[in-house]
């Protein structure tokens, strides 16, 4: 198990530097990434001013800096802001189906590297989660949360051990940092060879077939039961995640055409956290229709739904961090 991310939810922009200094002092080798999540973006501040608040010497910390409502006029500035610093992540909260065309225009305008750091969150409110880009410090006080990489342990039926250990680590870090430990996003998320796609295939056959759906729901039930049994405070999504470009099996299935856009949308209906890190042909009408479908999926399931689409043009796209991101077949 690794602490996939330690994310501090900072409630005031003036506290950024102080919290950066606190987490920079941590040198535990089990912490994979350190992050700062900021509040819903104030209406009276320019996005360029926000960028100036980031410490220039903290290269290893990333920031969920821009968190806007769907009707905010500053959403058209996001593309330029993402270009300025690869530590910056941004997302837009979507609560209605009234602005989906404009949001589709933003998605199709992004370069692949920018698109990996931008998301739409379909939900009733901003979400407190360690997972970027959909993270917001929507809290009353400074606090922190953890996300985990534990696919191998889940495979070996050690989820209870993992969650108990992570909770103990969180409480130790609370004493060390002097910041309130808020809880764990217990989502089962992959990283390359630690593949959630492989888990699903081992249980129910090669992706995709209809039997995948019950097993995905079963994983989510296992997460819920283990969280309850071990008295973990769950935050964020706390569900199965299937980011295509972060899972070698999902990537391969998308490349060969056996995992399609329709498959991913259907699986997300059965409580997968969202449509994530997917290369999709850049077409405005197509994107708008996808977002319309997602709006009603989220409306039905009543759980947070994150969308991170990578625009493509008929072939795979290359990125520095994730390598090749295949274009998923539209069927």
Name the features.
alpha/beta, single chain, Anaerobic Ribonucleotide-triphosphate Reductase Large Chain, UCP027893, two-stranded antiparallel ribbon
Give your account of this protein's structure.
The protein is of the alpha/beta class and 331 residues long. It has one domain (2-325): Anaerobic Ribonucleotide-triphosphate Reductase Large Chain, CATH 3.20.70. The chain has twelve helices and eleven strands. This is DUF711 family protein. Pfam families: DUF711.
Category from helices, strands and their pairing: alpha/beta
Extended strand count: 11
CATH architecture: Alpha-Beta Barrel
Overall 3D form? globular
Largest beta-sheet characterization: 9 strands, mixed
Number of domains: 1
SSE string, helices as H and strands as E: EHEHEHEHHEEHHEHHHHEHEEE
Q: Tell me the helix content.
A: 25-40%
Pfam family, one: DUF711
Protein name: DUF711 family protein
InterPro entries: UCP027893, UPF0210
Give the SSE map.
Elements: E1 2-9, H1 16-24, E2 34-37, H2 47-52, E3 61-69, H3 78-84, E4 88-94, H4 100-109, H5 112-115, E5 118-122, E6 143-149, H6 151-155, H7 159-177, E7 180-185, H8 196-204, H9 212-229, H10 248-256, H11 261-269, E8 274-281, H12 284-301, E9 305-312, E10 317-319, E11 323-325
Parallel strand pairs: 1-2, 2-3, 3-4, 4-5, 6-7, 8-9
Antiparallel strand pairs: 1-6, 5-9, 10-11
Helix pairs in contact: 4-12
């Amino acid at each position: 198990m690794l602490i996939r991310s330690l994310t501090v939810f900072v409630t005031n922009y003036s506290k950024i530097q102080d919290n950066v200094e606190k987490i920079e002092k941590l040198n535990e080798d089990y912490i994979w990434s350190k992050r700062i999540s900021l509040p819903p973006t104030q209406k009276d501040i320019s996005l360029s001013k926000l960028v100036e608040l980031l410490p220039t010497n903290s290269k290893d910390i990333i920031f969920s800096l821009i968190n806007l409502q769907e009707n905010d006029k500053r959403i058209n500035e996001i593309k330029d802001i993402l270009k300025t610093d690869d530590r910056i992540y941004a997302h837009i909260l979507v609560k209605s189906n009234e602005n989906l065309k404009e949001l589709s225009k933003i998605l199709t305008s992004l370069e692949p590297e920018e698109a990996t750091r931008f998301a739409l969150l379909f939900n009733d409110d901003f979400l407190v989660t360690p997972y970027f880009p959909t993270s917001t410090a929507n809290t009353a006080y400074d606090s922190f949360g953890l996300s985990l990489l534990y696919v191998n342990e889940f495979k070996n039926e050690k989820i209870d051990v993992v969650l108990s250990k992570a909770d103990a680590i969180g409480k130790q870090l609370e004493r060390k940092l002097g910041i309130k430990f808020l809880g764990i996003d217990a989502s089962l998320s992959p990283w390359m060879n630690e593949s959630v796609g492989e888990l699903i295939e081992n249980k129910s056959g090669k992706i995709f077939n209809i039997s995948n759906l019950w097993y995905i729901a079963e994983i989510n039930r296992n997460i819920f039961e283990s969280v309850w049994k071990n008295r973990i405070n769950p935050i964020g999504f706390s569900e199965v995640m299937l980011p295509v470009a972060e899972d070698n099996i999902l990537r391969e299935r998308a490349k060969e055409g056996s995992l399609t856009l329709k498959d991913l949308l259907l699986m997300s209906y059965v409580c997968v956290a969202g449509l994530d890190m997917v290369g999709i042909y850049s077409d405005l009408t197509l994107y708008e229709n996808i977002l319309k479908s997602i709006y009603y999926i989220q409306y039905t399931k009543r759980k947070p739904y994150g969308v991170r689409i990578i625009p493509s043009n008929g072939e795979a796209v290359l990125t520095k961090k994730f390598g090749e991101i295949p274009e998923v077949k539209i069927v």
